[in-house]
Amino acid sequence: MADVSARDVAALRKITGAGMMDCKKALLENDGDFDRAKDWLREKGIAGAAKREGRAADQGAVEVLVTGGVGAVVELNCETDFVAKGASFGAALSALTRLVVDEGDSELGAKQLNGESVDDYVKGLSGTLGEKIELGRIFRFETSDGLLDGYKHVQNERGTVGVLVELGGVDRDDDKVRGVAHDIALHIASAAPRYVTRDEVPAEEVARERAIYEAQTKEEGKPEQAWPKIVEGKLNGFYKTVALVEQAFVKDNKQTIGAVVKALGPDAHVRGFARVKIGEE
Predict the structure, then answer these.
(1) Would you tell me how many other CB atoms lie within 10 Å of the CB of residue 117?
(2) What does the longest C-alpha to C-alpha distance in the chain come to?
(3) Does residue 76 fall inside a structural domain?
(4) What percent of the chain has pLDDT over 90?
(5) Does residue 24 contact residue 13 with C-beta atoms inside 8 Å?
(6) Which helix (DSSP H) or strand (DSSP E) does residue 223 occupy?
């Protein structure tokens, strides 16, 4: 049996929100393996680990810019929210986002900004502001026939969530379509989908969830003949949390996002989206 340190237990507790003793038992039962320990806690119904995975203590801000058929979300990380909401940090983030829109995100560190490379620009900003500053996640969408929309959620004087979404098969000049696209961007910011459709969920992730639901069902003491139906129900519930088109629309939970999009026309569909939230991977 693996040795489990207090630091390991505290780290697992931070990720899962489970109690210290439960975290220690989970690690002991799984030879110190963090991923298996998280799954074990979920199987026992002790923690909602899937909702907490990937959280980090990083601070920073996100910027969103959509112009014409090009859109970008850029994340700039720092150590404190005090720096993140400052004017100099915000100006730098805006300049970086404009650069991504205008010149692309390929080999961004070597591109020129204010007479120096982006890498040197960010290093200089770090020296000026006195904190470790790094470029975070960057997404850039470009479309010739689709409709792009973006949304930035501002909290504590900085952008904390940034979203891009692209619709295809729609009339880009239709005000109703543009309004729906923006509503979907707001929905993505709030509901945090990870895929457009259930078909995009990797097979290994589905298999992992299925195994967890099977273990949960056995723990719940349900009749064995009912297990397959119960597991499929749980799996369908999982898809409704991670697949955008199956999520209930936040503005009208009687409709799914898929239904909202289809109402725009027979060819209307979500081509893709990106979502960045400070503090999450």
Answers:
(1) 14
(2) 70
(3) yes
(4) 63
(5) no
(6) none
**Inter-axis angle of helices 20-29 and 6-16, nearest 10:** 110
Note whether 124 and 261 are same-domain residues. Answer: yes
For residues 262 and 265, give the distance between their C-alpha atoms in angstroms, rounded to a whole number: 6
* Rounded Cα distance, 274 and 156, in Å: 22
Residues 93-109 pLDDT 10s:
999 999 999 999 999 99
**Cα–Cα distance measured from residue 253 to residue 247, given in angstroms and rounded to the nearest whole number:** 9
Q: 3-state DSSP call for residue 277? A: strand
SS3 label, residue 5? coil
Mapped onto helix, strand or coil, the DSSP state of residue 273 is strand
- The helix-helix angle for 6-16 and 34-43 (nearest 10°) equals 50
Same-domain check for residues 64 and 128: yes
Domain count for the chain, please give it.
2
Tell whether pTM > 0.70: yes
Q: Which residues contact 190 (CB under 8 A, 6 or more apart)?
A: 250
Three-state SS letters, 134-172 = EEEEEEEEECCCCEEEEEEEEECCEEEEEEEEEEECCCC
DSSP state for residue 250 in the 8-state scheme:
T
Residue 70 lies inside a defined structural domain of this protein:
yes
Residue 152 has pLDDT above 50, yes or no: yes
pLDDT at 49: 46
Range of the domain at 12: 6-53
- Convert the pLDDT of each residue in 17-53 to its tens digit: 677 788 888 899 998 888 888 888 877 766 654 554 4
Where do we find the tokens 């899962």? 16
Residues 84 and 189 occupy one common structural domain: yes
Mean pLDDT of 205-228: 89
Q: Nearest-CA neighbor of 249 among 184, 177, 168?
A: 184
What CATH number does the domain containing 88 carry? 3.30.479.20
Does residue 222 sit within a domain? no
